[in-house]
Amino acid sequence: MVLFLVSAWAFYSIRGGEKAHNEVFPDTAVAEKVSDGQESWPIFRGDRSLSGEAAPYIASGLELAWTFSTEGPVKSSPVIDGASVYVGSADGKVYSLTLADGSENWAFDTHAPVEASPIVVGDKVFIGSSNGRFFALKAENGNLLWDYQTDAKIYGSANWVGEKGELLVLVGSYDTQMYCFDARTGDVRWELGTDSSINGAPALTSDGKAVFGSCDGGIYVVDVWSGDVVLEMDTGSYVAGSPAIVGDYVFAGTMGGAVIGADVDKGEILWKYDTQNAFYSSPAVAGNRVVIGSRDNALHCLDKDSGDIFWSFPTGGMIDASPLICGERVLVGSGDGRMYMIDLDTGAEIWSYTVGPAVMSSAALAQDRLVFGSDDGVIYTFNVKKQANEQ
Length: 391
What we know:
The chain is an all-beta fold and 391 residues long. It has one domain: YVTN repeat-like/Quinoprotein amine dehydrogenase (Methylamine Dehydrogenase, Chain H), CATH 2.130.10.10. 1% of the residues lie in helices and 46% in strands. The protein is built from one helix and 34 strands. The chain has a five-stranded antiparallel sheet, with no helix packed on it. The chain has a five-stranded mixed sheet with strand order 2-28-29-30-31, with no helix packed on it. It has a four-stranded antiparallel sheet with strand order 3-34-33-32, with no helix packed on it. Strand 13 and strand 14 form a beta hairpin. The termini are far apart. The relative contact order is 0.17.
C-alpha cells in the first residue's frame, strides 16, 4: 500500500441548500465544546477525532434506568447533550428524549429510515437520512432550520469545525460526495467527489483536516477550509466504517478484512492487521490499545504502535457496532443481541445484557448514563455504577 500526495483535486459545487428558514448560529467560541466523555457525548464516537474514548469511571456493572420504544429498528447511534438524548430510528424519525427518564421531548419525521447518528453543536442538531436529505434542526424543539438534498442515502454521522466566526459541517453521502456546509445557512462551501459511496463519518484532526474513508478503498485527508485533498491512502478494499484520529495517527478497518494504522502527517503506513473477515465497525483508541469489532463475530484489541493483537473476544454474532472504551472497560453491542462489558487488559467478559435482536447501534456514555439502540426498536439507558473512589 502507498500513500499518494495529491494536488488540489476537490470538486466544487456551490449549490444552495434548501431552507425552511435561517437562524444565526451561536458564536464559534460557544459552540467549541469537545466532549470529555463524561458530561457530554454530542457526536458519534464522543469527540470530533472519533476516538470512542469516555472518561475512566465505569465499574463492574450497569443498571437499567429506562427504555423508549420507536416503531422501527434503531441502528442509529445516540448522542447526549445537556439534559437530552438524540437518536434516529428506521421509523423515519429523529427523537429528542429526556436523559433522566426517557420521556419524549420531540420527534422530527424525515420520511425515510434514519441510520445516521446525529451531532449537536450549540443549539442545533444535524443529521442525515436514507432519503439523502441532510437536516439542521433546532435542538430545543426539533423545528427545521434548513435541509439539503444529496443524490443518495446518508448513513454516516456528520462532523464540524469552527474558526474566526465561521462554522462548517461535513457529511458524506452514498452519491460519492463529501459535503461541507455553512452551518448557518445550509449553503455548500465545497463538495469533494470520490469514486464510490461514503458510508462513515469524517474524523477531524487538531490542525483542521478531515479524514474519511470511501468504498473506493481510499482514505482521504482533506483541508477543511479549502476542500483540497492533502493525502490519499489506498487501502485496497472498501472502507465502510469511520476512522479514529489520535495525534498524527489514523486507524480504520476495511471490508477486505484489515485494520490499518498510518501516520497522516508523514504519509506512512505504520502497520496492517489482516483477518479473513470484514470490518464495518469503527475503532476506539485509548492509551496503547485499538479496539474494533469484526464480522468474524469477535472484538479485536490491537497494539496501537505495532498492530500486534493483545486479545480477541468472541460473541455469538457479527460486531458492526463500534466499541466504547471507558478506563479499563470496553462496551460494545453484538449481532447476538447483547451489550457486553469487557476487560480492556485481558479481554475477559465482565458483564452483559441481553436485549434479543441485534445491537448495531454504538453506545454513548455521559452523565452516568449509557445509551444505545437495538433492532427491536428500543432505546436502552443504563445507570453507570462508579468506582468507590470516584463517588
